[in-house]
């Protein structure tokens, strides 16, 4: 894999500003190639019309301010459930695995936001996502020494295929249920979830004025879902875990943060999302956590 080290502001400007389009493409990564069926998602596809269109879809139907606001009731319901679980466990004097609880809450929120439903307990979804995140970021000798790729010395190729098959089988089942009209629509009264927006584009041209340019197939939709699910699950959980860890390591900071919460919110109600802009010290804590653990 050819590598160039950019070590000066002038060189960085040439690469990232003057010739940005030329260097906008992503390198080919063996594990991602299998997980997204040939980099047909967003994060690892090459820059061009396809990338721009998928990016627009993701922002419009999942990441825009209006969509985030639509999901507020989902986040609130799950946070209330988490607080009650912590309160009950503390009252009983039992030990609580907070990382596990936070991960479960993030998983449920992600599932309801993206798929409009919670994943069935009998589906091994979380382990597959965790393996996907690991494989996408792990060092793979085959990416740097291509002639060794056929030997699969680290068994990354085998693991990537197995994980990909598991995830795509789940998504195929969800798409089949959607096409048969058997998906529960109870949670989609006030909004349309990302999955159903994507499936509605199945077998349609990306550019309506040029129907021969690119037709969205199942592999494209599943690759996009893999990336969106993996990104939303891993980054959120990791950020929360590191922030809580740093607060436990620095009791003074935790005390100051608790004081701000008591001043702004009080003790008689839960923190609402509308309170967050007023919590200046909380913003500083989160930003410092991001700085320490990028």
Mean pLDDT: 87
Based on CA atoms alone, the radius of gyration comes out at 22 Å
Shape: globular
What's the order of the H and E elements? HHHHHHHHHHHHH
Supply the number of structural domains: 2
Tell me the strand percentage band.
under 5%
Which residues form runs of ≥5 with pLDDT under 50? none
CATH architecture classification name of the largest domain: Orthogonal Bundle
CATH topology of the largest domain: Cytochrome p450
Helix content: 55-70%
CATH class identity of the largest domain: Mainly Alpha
By DSSP, the count of extended strands is 0
Strand-pairing-aware structural class: mainly alpha
User: How many helices in DSSP terms?
Assistant: 13
What distance lies between the first and last C-alpha atoms, to the nearest angstrom? 25 Å
Reported for the largest beta sheet, the result is: none
Query: Please, what is the CATH homologous superfamily of the largest domain?
Result: Cytochrome P450
């Amino acid at each position: 894999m050819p590598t160039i080290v950019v070590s000066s502001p002038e060189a960085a400007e040439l690469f990232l500003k003057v010739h940005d389009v030329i260097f906008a493409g992503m390198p080919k990564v063996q594990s991602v190639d299998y997980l997204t069926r040939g980099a047909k998602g967003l994060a690892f596809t090459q820059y061009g019309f396809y990338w721009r269109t998928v990016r627009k879809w993701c922002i419009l139907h999942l990441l825009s301010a209006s969509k985030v606001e639509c999901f507020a009731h989902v986040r609130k319901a799950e946070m209330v459930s988490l607080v009650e679980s912590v309160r009950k466990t503390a009252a009983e004097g039992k030990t609580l695995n907070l990382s596990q609880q936070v991960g479960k809450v993030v998983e449920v929120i992600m599932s309801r936001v993206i798929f409009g439903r919670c994943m069935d307990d009998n589906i091994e979804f979380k382990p597959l996502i965790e393996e996907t995140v690991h494989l996408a970021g792990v060092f793979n000798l085959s990416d740097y020494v291509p002639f060794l790729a056929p030997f699969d010395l680290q068994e990354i190729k085998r693991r990537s295929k197995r994980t990909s098959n598991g995830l795509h089988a789940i998504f195929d089942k969800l798409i089949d249920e959607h096409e048969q009209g058997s998906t529960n629509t109870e949670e989609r009264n006030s909004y349309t979830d990302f999955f159903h927006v994507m499936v509605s584009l199945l077998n349609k041209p990306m550019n309506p004025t040029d129907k021969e340019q690119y037709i969205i197939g199942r592999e494209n939709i599943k690759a996009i879902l893999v990336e969106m699910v993996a990104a939303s699950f891993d980054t959120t959980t990791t950020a929360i875990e590191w922030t809580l860890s740093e607060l436990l390591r620095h009791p003074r900071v935790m005390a100051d943060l608790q004081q701000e919460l008591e001043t702004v919110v009080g003790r008689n109600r839960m923190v609402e999302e509308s309170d967050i802009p007023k919590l200046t010290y909380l913003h500083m804590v989160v930003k410092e956590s991001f700085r320490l653990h990028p």
